[in-house]
Amino acid sequence: MSNPSPIPSSKRTRALVVFGGTGFVGTAVLAQALSRDKALHVFVVSRTGAAPSWLRTNPVYQTERLHFLKGDLLAPQTVRDGLREVLAQYHIQACISCVGAITPWSNENMVRTCGDANVNAYGISKDVKADKFVVITRDRSNMNDWWYPFPRLIPGYYQGKRKIESCIENDAENRGSAICLRAGFVSGTRRTIPGLPTSFKVSVPMEPVYKIVGRVCPVIDVNVLAAAAVRFALSPQKADSALVSNDEIPDYFKQAVPAD
Length: 260
Ligand SMILES: NC(=O)c1ccc[n+]([C@@H]2O[C@H](COP(=O)([O-])OP(=O)(O)OC[C@H]3O[C@@H](n4cnc5c(N)ncnc54)[C@H](OP(=O)(O)O)[C@@H]3O)[C@@H](O)[C@H]2O)c1
Fold this sequence. Notes:
This protein is of the alpha/beta class.
């Protein structure tokens, strides 16, 4: 991808960067983005930097418009280095971060991966002059229910989510261009174990579990969540608010894309 004379910004090919695009939500985002905009190139950044094997055999992802880069958002220079050559040829229209982890054995790791890694992703998105930024955070509606165990079991997860949400909410300069999609439990077929590298392979349909969970907790289909992230990312319109609740996600930014 070496490029001796820089291409003027207006002539660069449009691209989307998906941090964590090898994971459960991230791979759904890739599928939505590749099918929605047939001219768009999509760059995945993750620690493995490689397409999961199931994805390599799935026709949805068989396109030269999909690229994989290795980079660790907790060592942000590795991501900046990986994106340097991309920037010479592409205009990065938006960045979507699907990076997070559930590691009950390390509270600190959850704060870092859900919080610091996403704060770094947001900083990189602004540095590369992406028009939009989306991060997947967490629904809060059960937080104060006495029977809901997660705030006590994995407090670092919520602390990390709050860290990136505050960072975006307090960034007055960029208001309307960055959002947090506060997802409930995400339903679909999981091929990753949260907190473990995506090189560990599983295939677990979550729909039966979430038919029961959905009676007491907000649930969202992975493709519905991914579609909302992509609609906002590729729309020229700004958002009214930085935080988008799970209930708002299915119709979010549909008015901006009438053909949806
Ligand atoms: N699944 C749910 O029910 C649910 C509900 C609400 C919110 N969320 C949030 O949605 C997001 C996506 O969840 P998911 O279930 O798709 O998670 P996942 O399958 O575990 O995917 C996490 C992704 O992050 C990447 N990653 C982790 N640490 C990284 C780092 N330091 N630098 C770069 N990439 C890194 C992983 O790839 P590598 O291993 O290749 O680095 C993977 O692609 C998370 O923030 C999660 O908290 C999920």
